[in-house]
Amino acid sequence: AGPIHSQISSNSEKGITVTVLVTGAAGFLSSQLVEKLAALGHSVMAMGRCPIPEQFKSMKNLMWVEKDIAVDGIESDEIASVDTVFHLAAVTSGIDEWKYLLSNEATTVRLLQACAKHTKKFIFASSQMVYGDANHTAVSENFPLQGLALALSLIHIRRCRRLLTCRSRWSPYH
Question: In 3D, which of 53, 51, 83 has the Cα closest to residue 67?
Fold first, then answer.
C-alpha cells in the first residue's frame, strides 16, 4: 500500500471519516478505489458520466453523482464537504485526439477551480494518452511523451500549477 492508502487506513482506524470525491468512478481502477474507501468507512461521493453502476447501488457511505464536468461544469458548493479528491475521470477513447485532450483538460481545470477553496488533497491520475500513439503493447512511465499530447500536457500542467498557486477563478475557458 502506498502512502495515500496508509493514511486513509490510519484515519479510518482512528475513527476519522474523510469525505472523498472519486471522479470517473465507474472506471476500472476508480470503481475499485470507491469500493475500498467505502469499505474503510469513508463517506464517498462517486462521480461519473453514466448512471450508478449496479455494484454501487447497495453500498453504504456512497453518494452517486451523474455528471460530465467537461460539459456540465462543477461549482465549489457542490463539493464543499469534500476533503480529498481522487481525480481519475478521463475520456479514453471514441473521439479524436484533439477533442480528447480538450475534454480532459476542461474537466481537470473546472474540477481544480471548484476544489480551490475547500479541498485539502487533490490526487490526479493521468492516462497513457500523454505518450501519443506509442504503438507498443506496454508503456511504462519512463516512455517519452510525444506529439500533440506532449505539447498539450505541458500547457495543461502549467495552467493547473498557476490555478493551484493563485487559488483564483482563472480559467482558459472565459
Answer: 51
Dihedral angle of Cα 100, 123, 114, 101, to the nearest 10 degrees: -10
Say how far apart CA 96 and CA 163 lie, in whole Å.
27
SS3 142: coil
Cα(36)–Cα(62) distance, integer angstroms: 11
Radius of gyration of the chain from its Cα atoms, rounded to whole angstroms? 16
Residues sharing a CB contact under 8 Å with residue 136, sequence separation 6 or more, in sequence order: 143
Q: Is the dihedral of CA 74, 76, 77, 80 positive or negative?
A: positive
Q: Above pLDDT 70, what percent of the chain?
A: 57
Owner of C-alpha cell 475534454: 103
Q: What is the pTM of this model?
A: 0.72
Q: What is the pLDDT of residues 130-153, one digit of tens each?
A: 566 556 566 677 776 665 555 556
